[in-house]
Amino acid sequence: MGNSGSNDSGLWRTATVHTDRIENEQTKLEHKFTNNSISTSKYTLLTFLPKSLSSQFARLANVYFLIISLMMMVGTYTSLYDSPLTPWTTLGPLSFVLMVSVFKEGLEDWKRHKSDDDINNSIVDVMRITDSITDSNIEWIKTKWKDVRVGDIVKILNNHDIPSDLILLSSTEEDDAAYIETANIDGETNLKIRNVANTNAEGTGTVFTDEGTFINLHNSSNKGDTLTVEYETPNPFIHTFTGTIDYAGKKTPVDQSNVLLRGATLRNTNSCIGACVYTGSDTKIIQNSRQSRTKLANIDKTVNTTIYLIMCAQCVLSALTMVGYMAFENRKGGELWYLCYERARDNMPENTNLYSDCSWESSSDIWGYFFTFFILYNNFIPISLYVTVEMCNYAHAHYIDNDMEMYDEKEDVPAAARTSNLGSDLGQVEYIFSDKTGTLTQNVMRFQKASVEAKSYSMGEDLSDATFRCFPMNDLKEEARAGKQGYHFVACLGLCHTIVLDKNEETGEVEYKAESPDEEALVSAAANLGFSLVERSSGSMTIDAQGIGQGTKKFKVHATIPFDSARKRMSVMVEDENGKFILYVKGADNIMLERSKRSDMTQFMNQHLSAYASEGLRTLVLGKRDFTSSGGKAWLKKWNDALSSTVGRAEKMEQAAAEVETNVDLVGATAIEDALQEDVANTIADLMKCGIKLWVLTGDKMETAINIGYSCKVLQEDMTLIKLQAIDNDPESVKLQLQRLVNHFGQVTKLSKNFFEVLNERTEAVGRKMNSIKEGIGRRASNLFAKNDSEGGESSGSLPSSGGDEEGEETVLPDGLDLSQLESQHMALIVDGPSLAHVLGDKESERMLLQIATICKAVIACRVSPSQKALIVKLVKKNVYPMPMTLAIGDGANDVGMIQEAHVGVGISGKEGRQAVNSSDFAIAQFRFLRRLIMVHGRWNYRRLCKCILYSFYKNIVLTFMLFFFEFFAAFSGKSLFEDMVYSGYNFFLGMPPLMIGMFDKDMSQRTMLRFHKVYMSGRERMDLNVPSLASWMSQGVVDAILIYFLTFCVIGMSSDGMYIFGTTCYSALILSMMYRAGSATFTWNAVVVFFWIGSIILYAGIFLPIYSNWYSYAPQFYGVTAQMSEDATFWLILLLVPTCVIMLDLSKKLWRSMFVPTIIDHAIEVDRGITHDVKEMIQICEGDEDTIRDILKQRGEFADDGMYKWWTAFNSKLPKFKFDRNKLRLLNRKLDKKSRKELGIVDTETDGLQSGFVFDHVSKDIGVGGTGGGQDLLDDERFDSGDSITGSLRGSFRESFAGGKI
């Protein structure tokens, strides 16, 4: 019997189908294909420990503490230097941390192993034939999946999963087809049809009509025919397959339509038989299961940088202590005879002979003390930091998973955090990249309009239009009945598709299963127009055309050229009952118009398409091409030759398709409505108020995308639009337009005054402001809200406004600032795919595009491919400085690239499958849930995790500096103030407070966050974890260390009862102070927080100290310390005095900041706590109503010009953003004439008179950008002179500014 052979040469392999067992060991070795077992686990028993430890030591802090432990061992067991601590004080906690992390890794991997075993041991039927060749000798052996081999013949039963990639050879269905569901592969639940390989002599069906026909494959004694398959080597492309079957002297081409992929499920088919071609790791689903790019949270990167900074500080502190030791040794070393110093022999008291039995003499040189001090200060970095952060991240993911407000009850889909460590990144998003179809829209398609023979037809009742008449859709049905174009229009709808019919066995109802909602809508529309699909096989379609008076018609389907994102069209070659060959084509309008015959009808169709697009409808153009019988067969020969080609098949298929899809007769166009999802407009509006920029990346045409942009509030009616479009597909035209746009908007950066003159003027204004604030503190309650007679509240003068200067004021920027540092709330960029193709890859064009795009509030990219989506995200992520936090959201397979490229990927469980969800970090059911995910969960997660990290560093800084101060009183000897076990337990005793902060803390309620959108700036601007905040906490740590150590020293001095009495007293005061400090930093108190806060104190004072101080056999040096210490009244005085001083200092600092330098976050917290009662005024300020803000500031006696505040923020931020308002933008654009604006692609909806009619949830037919009515001619200079949009006095000043080149 034959055995599979392998011929992996180049891009092809050859396999022989067999029906025998592979039992001989030598034969198994010669079988070079991989087995069918899979393994998703990361470890084996042998590799678990080394690999898991290796992953743990990829973390910087773990490496640091391992090095510290080794240094302790060297200092303890060698004479190179002295270690002040025993190795186990660090090695013990490190081992515990590693053990917890490794155990977690092992538990997760054990679950993977268990899942793999369940799959690998599943059972499937494999054909085996004995030597006695009769039908009864065909056996179906129950075989484990892992034992299936390439070349095996496998039988799949209905509703069973497919164990490996198979070529379909036989099916029980009459049409020689099998129906599969690929939800496990691409998430799509619709059925897909797979056809048997046409192995019979005619090439119209299979030679394996039943199980008995497989007898011929039994070839051990040359009694049968050999079936070999030559096909492509393993690859991850699930939608492509190229191969050739060689059987009985006939070669049969096979492609993806003949392949059953592992992971799919057989549906609506009793059984089918296939030949195994890929097994195990070679299968396409496993080839696609490579782990996505590991994403490191932004906070983790900041923590790593912080650790480097703190390690540098530790080195500096160690060096300073060593210098102190050298100075002390130089001045006092000769007097230390009691330490057995050789050089102090001359100062020994008389009648002593200390050196006769002196066993201790430090043998390390002076440089060895650096390592001594470095070890002493090793707690500068908290050893439990990573464990604490991981536990916090796990809690954050749990909150998202169980948030009922993000649960879609209709679809029964909850939110899911698929990656736990990126929860804090949700609170730092600056750019959102969103798909449109299925993400912003419902992806529920409704056929609305059609254009046929210069007439427009509509499903709606309103048939009026500004420029042409619409007819009811029933009239189109009559046109189809009459024949000609109307008939071919509905025929194209009903035949050009890949719809599968799914019949309900119980009810007998037939349901369309489509690969996309668009296709289902079009075929349903054809049925409504009297051309209904009732039966389909692999080679034919049966149509019920009684609705148009033509009875039942059967069409032979000779070829289907599928749709893809590059072709943007689909074709089908059919033969009608009269033997006439017809090619029906449907595709994107720009593609179809290029390939069609020009006729008088084209201009009417273009007019209709523009009108449909202006209403936000999705459009397709339909066409046909007639062939004679000989012409059709001639092309089919070329097509089949291309299909069967083993070299360059894809290129030959593309050439054959291009040859036939030309000179197409246009038969009509369709318009489909895809309504917005619930609350999309308000969600986008709220996200943009948070300061987040939204980029919509869609495959729709520009007019459709613009109008959807208005509908969902991505675009506002007062926005100036910039359209970037290539002229005649010329790359230079795009580059030239970008250069002119950069030069045009670069005029805003022109200086009118010397920068230092402006700075001096604004500094004086700030001084006046500060004086007015100080003078007004006492009367704040009465003066603050005089306008509304409200009570209480804090000054909002320090709130940053949304920018914008007073009308007529000059825009001034310092010399050298880049155009990308400008920002406008009133600009949007519209760019199409062809233009992007010319920009991406050209560094200069990319730079100019980003300069313009970063000014704009929103960007819409049209006609973009999936690869372009990912490249756009990468462009922004890599080239905007500082690197912004990017989030991509989509629902389909075409969004996977950008979801994986962005820092945070969000998948929507939509109608395009689950590939986006499977590749995402977070999954939600509706776009509207993104608001809560970002504004609530994201902000909470960011703020509390930042506070948790800062507190973790802070408490260890206090401990380290107490040791540093003690060295001044310990002769810089490297002696620790604390007993070793007490010292090593510090992070354990104080482990719960930062964990409670990181898990539960909420600085304000969700209601406040959703009302005051600008509080999101805390994460977007990285306000909570940066160098200033770290410096603030560190400096406070040093001050608190001074208070704790020296207050304790002043009260009890260096106790004669022993160093550990003094040290443990300091330590106890330290623990209590840190608990108080954690309490003052905590906003949210619940039962769990209180329990662990009190429990931490009890753990130290009530459990550890009593037990450890009485454990004489283990720690004799610490015996009785607790009892002796607690009997002294000064100990209790210190526990009262020291923590009180620490907490009072902290509260005083917070009070001063809230009174004199409050931030917008402080104001929002006061509103949330009820301190500021004038909520209406706060909302006005936070929502950035510039006029209202300026009125409030004027009323309060503060300077109206807030330009100096902008300079303060500019000096204190990495990249200052200077916002210029609507008036300056309008006047800048009016400097251009009509021709120049057109060349630049600038559309000013006010200047050009294109007032948008798009309100929140609907689109007007005749008004709007791209609309057909309601527009005005562009304003010329005379109209500008006589216009009343600007007052005369301001007009004059602006004209002077323009004339002088100031703007």
UniProtKB/TrEMBL annotation:
The active site is at D435. It is an enzyme of class 7 (translocase). Its main location: membrane. Gene3D superfamilies: Calcium-transporting ATPase, cytoplasmic domain N, Calcium-transporting ATPase, cytoplasmic transduction domain A, HAD superfamily/HAD-like. It is found in: Membrane. ATP binds at D435, K436, T437, E519, F563, K586, R618, T698, G699, D700, R863, K869, N894, D895. Mg(2+) binds at D435, T437, D891, D895. This is Phospholipid-transporting ATPase. GO terms for cellular component: plasma membrane. Belongs to the cation transport ATPase (P-type) (TC 3.A.3) family. Type IV subfamily. Residues 784-812 are annotated as: Disordered.
